[in-house]
């Protein structure tokens, strides 16, 4: 567990799906992912004067190399706040643990004065889809039961709601109903936040807000039956978590830089 000292609101920045490579010139579908992430972090610095914590919500690496995670670690070192990492389907869990050793990056519960973040691992080794193992669901249940006085943001990599894209919804969270059942038992869950889908969305279901966010590199075309890329620029999500449980949030994207996306690609 990590305890944050903060004044209200709790200011969170989420970046996701960085897909970094060991080589600095590594590309994904035409985009140099290290460069595009650095462009996103530049606008974070310009737009968010104070940040309490950074969240990187999975697919940190594309090739699973030590160097790819070190690129991320070095890029975030300039921020005066802790950063937490989630496992995505492309990530190498063992290498992540090695690089993050002696840091709080892989802690799963973060608590502040009025809020707690529960960071769940939905990775399934060797698979693209996600699944919350019994111990992850129990972690959520126990954490929620322990502090019913804290508003809660649940975070994971895979999407627990359909995105309206046939190809994508086959690779979402396979036991989303189990997650929903835990959330339903605890009225202090305010929102669920994820990556994986490379696009933004904002919905409310049974009083809980469900949020997805863009990638720092390529974007997926919303509503597409088959794999397709969007021409929107890389971006990030910011969240201000207020003492009364309210959430202010938005997405901001890089402007004025052209990214040469391979729109003809059929997969990644």
Automatic annotation (TrEMBL):
Residues 10-199 form the Calcineurin-like phosphoesterase domain. It comes from the Bacteria. InterPro entries: Calcineurin-like_PHP, CNP_phosphodiesterase-III, GpdQ/CpdA-like, Metallo-depent_PP-like. The keyword Iron applies. Keywords: Hydrolase, Iron, Metal-binding. Pfam families: Metallophos. Signal peptide: none annotated. Belongs to the cyclic nucleotide phosphodiesterase class-III family. NCBIfam families: PRK11148.1 (NF008359). This is 3',5'-cyclic adenosine monophosphate phosphodiesterase CpdA. It comes from Alishewanella longhuensis.
């Amino acid at each position: 567990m990590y305890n944050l000292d903060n004044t209200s609101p709790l200011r969170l920045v989420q970046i996701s799906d960085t897909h970094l490579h060991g080589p600095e010139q590594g590309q994904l579908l035409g985009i140099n992912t290290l460069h595009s992430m650095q462009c996103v972090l530049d606008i974070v610095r310009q737009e968010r004067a104070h940040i309490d914590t950074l969240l990187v919500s999975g697919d940190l690496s594309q090739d699973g190399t030590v160097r790819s995670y070190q690129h991320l670690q070095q890029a975030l070192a300039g921020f005066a706040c802790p950063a937490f990492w989630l496992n995505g389907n492309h990530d190498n869990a063992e290498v992540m643990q090695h690089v993050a050793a002696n840091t709080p990056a892989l802690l799963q519960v973060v608590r502040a004065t009025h809020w707690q973040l529960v960071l769940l691992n939905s990775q399934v080794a060797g698979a693209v889809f996600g699944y919350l193992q019994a111990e992850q669901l129990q972690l959520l249940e126990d954490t929620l039961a322990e502090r019913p006085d804290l508003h809660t943001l649940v975070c994971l990599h895979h999407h627990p709601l359909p995105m309206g894209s046939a190809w994508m919804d086959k690779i979402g969270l396979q036991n989303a109903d189990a997650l929903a059942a835990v959330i339903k038992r605890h009225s202090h869950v305010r929102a669920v936040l994820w990556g994986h889908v490379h696009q933004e969305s904002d919905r409310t279901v049974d009083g809980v807000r469900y949020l997805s966010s863009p990638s720092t590199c390529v974007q997926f075309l919303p509503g597409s039956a088959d794999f397709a890329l969007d021409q929107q620029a890389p971006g990030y999500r910011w969240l201000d978590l207020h003492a009364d449980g309210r959430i202010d949030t938005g997405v901001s994207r890089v402007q004025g830089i052209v990214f040469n996306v391979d729109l003809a690609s059929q997969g990644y």
